[in-house]
Amino acid sequence: MTTPAFQRARSAEAKQAREDAILDAARSLGGRRGIRDVTLTDIATAVGMHKSALLRYFETREQIFLRLTAEGWREWSADLRGDLERRAHATAAEVAEAVAATLAARPMFCDLLAQAPLNLERNVSIDSVRAFKLVTLKEVELIGDELRRLLGLTELQNVDLIATATSMAGALWQMATPGPRLRELYATDPRLGHAVVEVEPRLRRVLTAFLIGIDAGSAEATGRGAGG
User: Fold this and answer.
1) Residue 184: predicted pLDDT
2) N or C: which end of the chain has fewer CB within 10 A?
């Protein structure tokens, strides 16, 4: 049995369908193996094309995963904002819990968040980086609107909170998924038990402390102003 020869997409619709198939394959492989272990050849094989043919649609492996990172930002933002929009009021702890829970529910997005600044942004065109950054900027602004409404955060505080949450989610996910050899080491040596973490509880604690610190700082500044 022979594999049918790959046919290059001729119409705009066919090209879009081919790009979607490539992204679907990368999403599936990345979710199963982890982003670092998926090669361009793996993706091409999953779609049923040669690597050279795939490069007609995406410039590099990193561009494929950067597109999926942008997609992840849109989906996470929509989910988080949906949670926050349903709340007339919220405490710092409740907001921290919502942010942590919606991130922890997306393990592949957490993986992508760690990989994006390390390598995904470094092997693509400037136009690809610009498009990605504009997506994240828009989503940060949309989330910021809800954070401002519920907690009165400034623009800078919103950016700091979201940057802290997303960067920590990426780092914590890497710690939570060390691979079979390291996991066996940690399991057999009680002194290393702390090396494997649970993403959501730790992220929730850190973000709660962050937001309580902001609130305390604001109260202190207000008190100094009143006293002066």
Assistant:
1) 82
2) N
